[in-house]
Specification:
The protein is an alpha+beta fold. The protein has five helices and five strands; from the N terminus they run ββαβββαααα. It has a three-stranded antiparallel sheet with strand order 3-4-5, with no helix packed on it. The chain has a two-stranded antiparallel sheet with strand order 1-2.
């Protein structure tokens, strides 16, 4: 696992702690290629946005697509994912209407759900030329 430093979080009363999140090597490589500088593992942008030619929008550190993945209308992915993290898809979309609204832990959990131990690598096929230098998957 790779620990990524997110921020210094301070509570009321002055107690502060460093907030980190653990990323699998696969998550770190894909995030670097999708929202980072494409050269430095650990470089990433949790709020990255890319508008595609077809009008869909890719958002978040893993560039979740507004049509195929983060879609409140066609919930083939989001309904089971929401259940997996203990909520309904209605609640998920109320809390986080877009991937950029979701906290890092949710973005990482969705990546791991879609990645599925490498079986879901095709979700990021467009950037395989980048992340494929760091990790290996079938197909």
């Amino acid at each position: 696992m790779i620990e990524v430093f997110l921020a210094i979080v301070c509570q009321i009363g002055g107690a502060c702690h460093a907030e980190t999140i653990a990323l699998s090597p696969e998550a770190a490589a894909v995030a670097m290629c999708e929202s980072g500088d494409r050269q430095t593992l650990g470089s990433l942008d949790w709020g990255a946005v890319n508008v595609n030619r077809n009008g869909t929008v890719d958002q978040g550190v893993f560039q979740f697509n507004s049509y195929w993945v983060w879609n409140s209308q066609d919930r083939w992915i989001m309904r089971p994912f929401a259940n997996r993290i203990g909520m309904s898809s209605d609640t998920l979309f109320h809390l986080w209407p877009t991937p950029n609204d979701a906290p890092p832990r949710v973005q990482v959990a969705l990546f791991e759900y879609l990645w599925d131990g490498g079986r879901g690598w095709q979700h990021w096929a467009a950037s395989r030329d980048c992340w494929g230098k760091y990790i290996s998957v079938g197909g």
